[in-house]
């Protein structure tokens, strides 16, 4: 347990209690510039609640541990399959290996070096895997534990590894190198044998040129003592391992990419760089007896068919009752440049070309037998693409694909935001699945998914979990994440509420983002009332309600003007300027209450009162599931585009939705479909504004209008990256070279960049600097002078940069490496203030309140917290007709840095859930009258008793956390979380029937604080924020769970709960399960006598140290691995760890003993059968003469 010095933790406060327990109110106000707090709060007052509330959480409850990684392996490079265990391994360019079995069996392991995986080889049915890396290291992984670990490593020092081959049931691994040499490694000891096949011995002495790197190694199916070596330049050598000489050499004038044997060992096939396949016979190696260019055009004059693209890999698989299969990737004609990557299947005279959506990385044919010298009987092909994994069924003539049970389509459209809900209502998952199952695709193979290895059980964790991902194309996916698995439940397409963008209208539309205008930027979900809200990048909010019934209806829409305007006063005397705007500046806001006048500006004139997108006006068919109830769009104002939404909150009990941006706040009544409030942030303060703000001059105001074109994204600063960025998932990684503006961080979009207060597109791509700008915009932009970024100066303490790699010198100049300004100095420069957090709750709005009332808490980028009072009609009937009054309460609380989150605790320290309406189907047929009684739950079930006379308000900003007592508004506890960095995410979560504050910091630290006393419970440097994706997708949830997007295609889940770390071993799937190796077919007497080599091949005798000697020490270095220790890292230290290690050791020992017992019994049975057979043969031939045979 880590010990904390509370005096150091509360450093910077002006007073602390004698025990070092909490800061007083005067300290709490020190960094925030006043406000409505009571500075007279004493340490004694701070101590009072501590006596009442017994906090149960201690540091022993917390431990950080990665649990599971979901999604498609990012940048895959290699593929392997164990035909007996039926598990699949995928290696990646980042040194990661993913091992997949039956659904639920999904394991991720990472090489420490991070070098790309070149090749993977299973030790078939042995529970081990060999990986070859780009840093010329071989690793042996132990798969007999739930978390695989490296048992041995072998680092080649003088030669580069190009190809590996491990024969079935052999312990000697052949390793080919770039120099053309072949080395042999003992798998058990991971030591190099002294036996080496040098390239100059393998080729003919008369050959003057080097044959190139080894591109293929395989032993003959007919004779294990013969090794086929393929060299890049077209040379193939069949090497006799016993006599240490070449049996045959074959030469071809095109480079070789791969080689495949016929199962009888008399023929082999090569694929070449000119798109040709050559078939060779061992009896006549002088030239191939068959050469074909499958996709080459046949010339009329009888010449050789024209060459095609290289065939990168070929597999030659035989069938007992039909023609052999020849399967290859590549080889297409050069004249079909636009043709997609393809896999070709040749079966007899039939040629089938399967076009793929992405380039093929590798493929493997799955066969019924692991023995290379038997009829292979292929039944499926696993194809690994750059961004997908598909399995083709070979047993059906139309070659359908299998339905993939893994969640590998997370990245189907780039993920822009995530939300995670643990311990949600149990009926949600079946309900979402039932509406999602109706959209399943048809045409899949009817056979079982062939990768069915491993074992998985549900484990002890039983609560339901749901992950929601928002995407760049406007889609939202709901996933069942219970028990560390992931399965898609339901997909919602938010773009369907809008008209499709027509090509050619680019100049006349009011779009503010060029690509992905429907990208999801923020999501808000209330699981209890099933209300779902989405904020899109084009400055709109869509509110969805859930229904089990299809409906055909029009979509209600509202337009909101949300543009803060400061009076244009030019005066040299700033002292006489009033401290807050007068009533005239609020007039534009008051006009908006009646709704907007949809006046579309004529072309060439200033855009005003037009939204960015067009909502469908005709009735729309909405299938069961989430159905759009209301679309709210921000509109252009006087030529200025609407700013993107930075905060969002919905409450079903109040029937309200609130959202804000860097201009101000809007509150909309969902039931009456009216705008209740549309106000600039400054106007919310009224007379309570703690800052003396100066209005801007007219010139500065106009300058800002011109600056808004930067909403198109960082494209203006990265023109050189245009080609490189635009792929469907690189957009998530390439735009990480800019600073983070964290007052807008709640957008949580992994691909958006909010730089210095301006929102940019979540999937903005590079484009030429002047694209889609009017001439006026360009003129205004040029006014800035050369080299100046089109962003205004940093507007708050929330504009700190994350130091990230910059791609070019030009980009480095534009990386905005300016220091973070203090809150007060920022305000002098700019009077704008973003709304960063919103929270509906029953709370005390003012100091003298005696009872809780509906409130909206508003947090800003300057650390201000405003409380708005909501006056709701008393009855259901009046609620439909009477207006809801929203008014500032005058209460202002202050913190350092942009506000991230709020929560309320009751007087017992229990979490107070905001009220909600119990879900009912809005389209239910048995509902006679429309005005049914709404069923509201006003307080959380855990605190059904009276809430008491006070409550605790927990507020966390990017710099500090504070706990206030309401209604007195006394600051009871303060914790300065970070001085040098800033928080990216903070959530109040429940754990072990208690509550705590979980924080993720930009410096990579994960912290938890107790509530309400803000005692540090956990602080671990977990993860450096290397790119914006992590910053925008990290989220905490209840029961000690969290997640983030670790790559553009993968979700990494982790736990900060000690209990879950302890139980993780039981929850993970087993990769290895004891399976009997299938017996080899009886080859028959004559085949055994004449078909193969006369003598048995003993590799041990040939490659062992006694015969071959030791290899040079400088050639390769053996590195012992951590072995089985990795498997128990998830368990706690001390006694629990020792017990876990002992249990695993006993399991493995018992397994080995069981295998030994089985083998002994099998040998005894075999010996008995042989003895009986021999006796029968002896009796049969005993009395016969030699001529009677």
Short description:
The protein is an alpha+beta fold and 1189 residues long.
Structural shape = elongated
- Classify the beta-strand content into a percent band: 25-35%
Radius of gyration from CA coordinates? 35 Å
For the record, give the distance between the C-alpha atoms at the N and C termini, rounded to a whole number: 85 Å
Overall average pLDDT:
77
Give the total of beta strands.
Answer: 61
Main β-sheet, in a few words?
5 strands, antiparallel
Name the poorly predicted regions.
1-51, 567-604, 694-830, 940-945, 1085-1095, 1125-1137
Number of helices: 20
Which structural class fits the helix and strand makeup?
A: alpha+beta
Strand order of the largest sheet: 6-7-8-9-61
Helical coverage, percent range: 10-25%
Subcellular location: Cell membrane; Cytoplasm
WD repeats: 110-151, 249-290
InterPro entries: Lethal2_giant (IPR000664), Lgl_C_dom (IPR013905), LLGL2 (IPR013577), V_SNARE_CC (IPR042855), WD40/YVTN_repeat-like_dom_sf (IPR015943), WD40_repeat_CS (IPR019775), WD40_repeat_dom_sf (IPR036322), WD40_rpt (IPR001680)
Region (Disordered): 15-49, 746-795
Keywords, please?
1189 residues; alpha+beta; 5-stranded antiparallel β-sheet; 5-stranded mixed β-sheet; 20 helices; 14% helix; elongated; disordered N terminus; exocytosis; protein transport; cell membrane; repeat; LLGL2
What would your notes on this structure say?
This protein is of the alpha+beta class and 1189 residues long. Helix content is 14%, strand content 32%. Strands 6-7-8-9-61 form a five-stranded antiparallel sheet, with no helix packed on it. A five-stranded mixed sheet has the order 33-34-35-39-37. The chain is elongated. The model is unreliable at 1-51, 567-604, 694-830, 940-945, 1085-1095 and 1125-1137 (pLDDT under 50).
């Amino acid at each position: 347990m880590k010990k904390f010095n509370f005096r150091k933790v509360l450093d910077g406060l002006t007073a602390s209690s004698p025990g070092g327990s909490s800061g007083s109110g005067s300290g709490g106000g020190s960094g925030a510039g006043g406000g409505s707090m009571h500075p007279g709060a004493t340490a004694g007052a701070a101590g009072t609640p501590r006596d009442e509330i017994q906090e149960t959480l201690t540091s022993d409850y917390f431990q950080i541990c990665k649990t599971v990684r979901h999604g498609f392996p990012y940048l895959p490079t290699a593929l392997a399959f164990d035909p007996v265990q039926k598990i699949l391994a995928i290696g990646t360019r980042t040194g990661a290996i993913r091992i997949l079995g039956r659904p639920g069996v999904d394991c991720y392991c990472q090489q420490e070096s991070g070098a790309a995986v070149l090749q993977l080889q299973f030790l078939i049915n042995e529970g081990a895997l060999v990986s070859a890396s780009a840093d010329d290291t071989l690793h042996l992984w132990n798969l007999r534990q739930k978390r695989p670990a490296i048992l041995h490593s072998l680092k080649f020092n003088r030669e580069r590894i190009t190809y590996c081959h491990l024969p079935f049931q052999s312990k000697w691994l052949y390793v080919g190198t770039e120099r053309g040499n072949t080395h042999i490694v003992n798998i058990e000891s991971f030591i190099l044998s002294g036996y080496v096949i040098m390239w100059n011995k393998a080729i003919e002495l008369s050959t003057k040129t080097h044959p190139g790197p080894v591109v293929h190694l395989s032993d003959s199916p007919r004779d294990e003592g013969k090794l086929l070596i393929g060299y890049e330049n077209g040379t193939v050598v069949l090497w006799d391992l016993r006599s240490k000489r070449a049996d045959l050499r074959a030469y071809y004038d095109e480079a070789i990419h791969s080689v495949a044997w016929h199962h009888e060992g008399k023929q082999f096939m090569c694929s070449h760089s000119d798109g040709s396949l050559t078939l060779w016979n061992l009896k006549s190696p002088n030239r191939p007896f068959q050469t074909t260019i499958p996709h080459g055009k046949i010339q009329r004059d009888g010449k050789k068919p024209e060459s095609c693209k290289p065939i990168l890999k070929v597999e030659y698989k035989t069938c007992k009752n039909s023609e052999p299969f020849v399967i290859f990737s590549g080889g297409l004609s050069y004249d079909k440049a636009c043709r997609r990557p393809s896999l070709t299947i040749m079966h007899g005279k039939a040629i089938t070309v399967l076009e793929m959506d992405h380039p093929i990385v590798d493929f493997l044919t799955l066969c019924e037998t692991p023995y290379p010298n038997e009829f292979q009987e292929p039944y499926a092909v696993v194809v690994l693409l750059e961004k997908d994994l598909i399995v083709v069924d070979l047993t059906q003539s139309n070659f359908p694909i299998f339905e993939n049970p893994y969640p590998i389509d997370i990245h189907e459209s780039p993920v822009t935001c995530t939300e995670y809900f643990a311990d949600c209502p149990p009926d949600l998952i079946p309900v979402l699945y039932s509406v999602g199952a109706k959209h399943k695709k048809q045409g899949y193979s009817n056979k079982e998914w062939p990768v069915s290895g491993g074992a998985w059980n549900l484990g002890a964790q039983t609560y339901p979990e749901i992950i929601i991902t928002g995407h760049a194309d406007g889609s939202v996916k709901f996933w069942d994440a219970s028990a560390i698995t992931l399965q898609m439940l339901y997909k919602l397409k938010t773009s369907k509420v809008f008209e499709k963008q027509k090509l050619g209208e680019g100049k006349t539309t009011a779009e503010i983002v060029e690509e992905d205008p429907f990208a999801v930027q923020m999501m808000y979900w209330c699981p209890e009332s099933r209300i779902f809200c989405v904020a899109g990048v084009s400055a709109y909010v869509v509110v969805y309600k859930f229904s089990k019934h299809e409906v055909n209806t029009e979509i209600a829409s509202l337009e909101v003007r949300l543009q803060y305007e400061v009076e244009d006063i030019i005066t040299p005397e700033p002292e006489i300027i009033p401290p807050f705007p007068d009533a005239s500046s609020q007039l534009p806001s008051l006009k908006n209450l009646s709704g907007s006048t949809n006046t579309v500006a004529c072309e060439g004139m200033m855009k005003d009162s037009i939204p960015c997108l067009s909502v469908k006006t005709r009735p729309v068919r909405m299938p069961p599931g989430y159905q759009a109830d209301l679309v709210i769009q921000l509109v252009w104002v006087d030529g200025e585009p609407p700013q993107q939404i930075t905060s969002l909150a919905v409450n079903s009990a109040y029937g309200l939705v609130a959202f804000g941006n860097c201009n101000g706040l809007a509150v909309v009544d969902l039931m009456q479909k009216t705008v209740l409030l549309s106000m600039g942030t400054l106007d919310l303060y009224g007379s309570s504004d703690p800052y003396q703000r100066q209005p801007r001059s007219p010139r500065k105001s106009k300058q800002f209008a011109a600056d808004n074109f930067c909403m198109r994204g960082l494209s203006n600063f990265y023109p050189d990256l245009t080609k490189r960025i635009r792929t469907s998932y690189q957009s998530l990684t390439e735009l990480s070279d800019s600073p983070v503006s964290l007052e807008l961080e709640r957008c949580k979009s992994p691909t958006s960049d909010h730089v210095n207060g301006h929102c940019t597109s979540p999937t903005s791509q590079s484009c030429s600097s002047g694209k889609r700008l009017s001439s006026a915009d360009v003129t205004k932009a040029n006014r800035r002078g050369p080299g100046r970024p089109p962003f205004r100066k940093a507007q708050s303490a929330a504009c700190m940069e994350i130091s990230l790699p910059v791609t070019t010198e030009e980009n480095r100049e534009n990386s905005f490496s300016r220091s973070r300004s203090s809150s007060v100095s920022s305000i002098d420069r700019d009077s704008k203030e973003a709304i960063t957090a919103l929270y509906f709750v029953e709370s005390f709005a003012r100091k003298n309140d005696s009872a809780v009332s509906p409130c909206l808490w508003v947090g800003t980028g300057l650390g201000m917290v405003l409380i708005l009072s909501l006056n709701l009609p008393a009855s259901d009937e009046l609620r439909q007709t009477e207006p809801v009054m929203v008014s500032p309460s005058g209460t202002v609380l202050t913190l350092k840095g942009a506000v991230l989150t709020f929560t309320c605790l009751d007087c017992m320290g229990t979490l107070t859930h905001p009220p909600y309406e119990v879900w009912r189907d809005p389209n239910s047929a048995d509902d006679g009258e429309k005005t049914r009684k709404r069923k509201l739950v006003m307080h959380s079930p855990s605190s059904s008793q009276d809430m008491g006379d006070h409550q605790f308000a927990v507020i966390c900003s990017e710099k500090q956390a504070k706990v206030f007592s309401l209604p007195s508004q006394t600051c009871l506890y303060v914790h300065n979380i970070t001085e040098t960095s800033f928080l990216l995410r903070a959530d109040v979560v429940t754990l072990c029937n208690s509550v705590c504050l979980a924080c993720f910091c930009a410096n990579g630290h994960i912290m938890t604080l107790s509530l309400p006393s803000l005692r540090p419970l956990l602080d671990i440097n977990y993860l450096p924020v290397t790119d914006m994706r992590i910053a925008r997708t990290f989220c905490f949830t209840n029961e000690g769970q969290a997640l983030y997007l670790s790559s553009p295609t993968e979700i990494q889940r982790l736990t900060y709960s000690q209990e879950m770390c302890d139980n993780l071993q039981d929850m993970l799937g087993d990769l290895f399960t004891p399976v009997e190796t299938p017996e080899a077919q009886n080859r028959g007497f004559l085949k055994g006598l004449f078909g193969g080599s006369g003598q048995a091949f003993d590799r041990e005798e040939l490659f062992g140290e006694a015969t071959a000697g030791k290899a040079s020490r400088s050639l390769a270095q053996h590195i012992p691995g951590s072995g089985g220790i990795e498997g128990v890292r998830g368990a706690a230290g001390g006694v629990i760890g020792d017990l876990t290690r002992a249990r695993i050791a006993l399991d493995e020992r018992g397994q080995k003993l069981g295998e030994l017992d089985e083998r002994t019994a099998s040998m005894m049975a075999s010996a008995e059968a042989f003895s009986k057979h021999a006796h029968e043969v002896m009796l049969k031939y005993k009395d016969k003469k030699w001529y009677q045979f």
